[in-house]
Design brief:
Strand order of the largest sheet: 2-3-4-1-5-8-7-6-9
Structural class: alpha+beta
Shape: rod-shaped
Strand content: 15-25%
Distance between the termini: 72 Å
Number of strands: 9
Largest sheet: 9 strands, mixed
Mean pLDDT: 82
Helix content: 55-70%
Length: 400
């Protein structure tokens, strides 16, 4: 495990060389079966005419770097020696998708007047900088030529083989990571009209949430949930791409800083040219990702508001029902008390009627009972009945 971590420190070696040379660097999208990490490096051969080749497998792309030594400064731009078939055989991918292709022509010290040599190589609107503290000079117009490659001139003044290799690597990495970062721009452009529609739909649903009747809450909630699902789907499908764009953009900025540029009179700086035309695209991707995130939060917030409103309405309806139940219970209690009172009267009347019959029967039989007994029995019977009913009620309440 420790050896694997340590190997990562040496996973991206530069190709060190001196003298005039032509460096070709190609970046192409990674395939599933070639998703390996690290690099393959073919060291310098005995014959100076033989190129050196390096193939590196990154997270989502592969790079091929080929350095061809030149015997003298080239008078015209060298022809690429890497064909599509060569690239396919090197990375074991059929019909590879090339994302970035750059050629770097390394020459001797720059002449006092750059105009003629730039014209000779077909450069227009060129950006130029002293790099490495003035040890070299880089020039490019960042235009893609007929061979689908951009061209960069590097005039080496006093860089040794190690510094030259590292400087060349920084330059072609700027182009590679810039191209990889810009893969997010088509996604941002594709999402632009969709985001406009999402915004409009969200405003409409928000306004309807304020005026919709309680009977239509379910339909409104379904529409908001559908909008939220669309936004989350769009965010999920582009999150990795926009995240990679931000990471690659940071690497580009770091590599530009490592060049240690200084101004060449009459030319825009190399790094400034890249940044001024590169940052707007990156900001577009960042703004799109941020807009998606804000829309997602806004729809979720709207769903929460609607659910809260529905919950409040349900609780209000429940309160009304509970109050109605309480009112019915109170009415039932009153009715029960009235029934209890009537029951006491009815039972007492029935018992007193029985006593009256008993007294009359006894009187006919010759047993005379004083009317005072009947009068005294009335409150006694009523009290006894009331006491009995209350005791029964109490027993039932205790049992419940």
């Amino acid at each position: 495990m420790t050896s694997d971590f340590n190997a990562e420190l040496h996973a991206r070696p530069s190709i060190y060389f001196t003298g005039p040379a032509f460096v070709e660097h190609i970046a192409l999208m990674q395939s599933a079966h070639a998703a390996l990490h690290g690099s393959r490096y073919l060291p310098e051969a005995d014959d100076n005419d033989d190129p050196r080749l390096q193939v590196e497998h990154h997270t989502e792309f592969i790079t091929i770097t080929r350095v061809t030594q030149l015997t003298a400064d080239a008078e015209e731009w060298p022809v690429s020696s890497l064909s599509v078939d060569d690239i396919a055989s090197l990375v074991d991918i059929e019909a590879p998708l090339i994302v970035s292709r750059v050629g770097i022509l390394v020459l001797g010290p720059a002449p006092a007047e750059l105009g003629p040599i730039l014209s000779r190589f077909g450069f227009h609107d060129t950006a130029a900088s002293f790099i490495g503290g003035g040890a070299a000079q880089v020039c490019s117009d960042f235009r893609v030529q007929e061979d689908q490659a951009s061209r960069i001139l590097l005039f080496n003044k006093e860089l040794n083989a190690y510094r030259l290799g590292r400087m060349v690597r920084r330059i072609y990495e700027i182009e590679t990571y810039r191209s990889m970062a810009l893969l997010g721009l088509p996604e941002a452009r594709r999402l632009a009209p969709l985001l406009g529609g999402y915004d409009k739909n969200l405003v409409e649903l928000t306004n309807r949430n304020q005026t919709t009747a309680t009977t239509e809450h379910k339909k409104l909630l379904e529409e908001i949930s559908e909008l939220s699902a669309q936004i989350i789907s769009a965010a999920a499908s582009t999150r990795n791409r926009f995240g990679a764009t931000a990471a690659y953009a940071k690497i580009v900025e770091e590599r530009i800083g490592e060049l240690r540029e200084s101004h060449v009179p009459g030319f825009q700086r190399f790094g400034v040219f890249v940044t001024r035309r590169f940052r707007p695209a990156i900001r577009t991707c960042e703004a799109t990702a941020l807009r998606l995130d804000q829309l997602s939060h806004a729809t979720m917030h709207l769903i929460d508001l609607l659910q809260t409103r529905i919950q409040v309405e349900i609780e209000y309806q429940n309160a009304i029902q509970i109050q109605a139940m309480a009112d019915r219970a109170a009415t039932q209690v009153k009715i029960q008390r009235a029934v209890e009172g009537l029951s006491i009267i009815a039972i007492s009347y029935y018992l007193l009627s029985l006593l009256k019959v008993a007294f009359e029967t006894a009187d006919h039989a010759g047993y005379h009972i004083s009317p005072l007994v009947m009068l005294v029995s009335i409150p006694v019977v009523i009290g006894a009945v009331a006491l009995a009913i209350l005791r029964v009620k109490h027993a039932l309440s205790a049992h419940a």
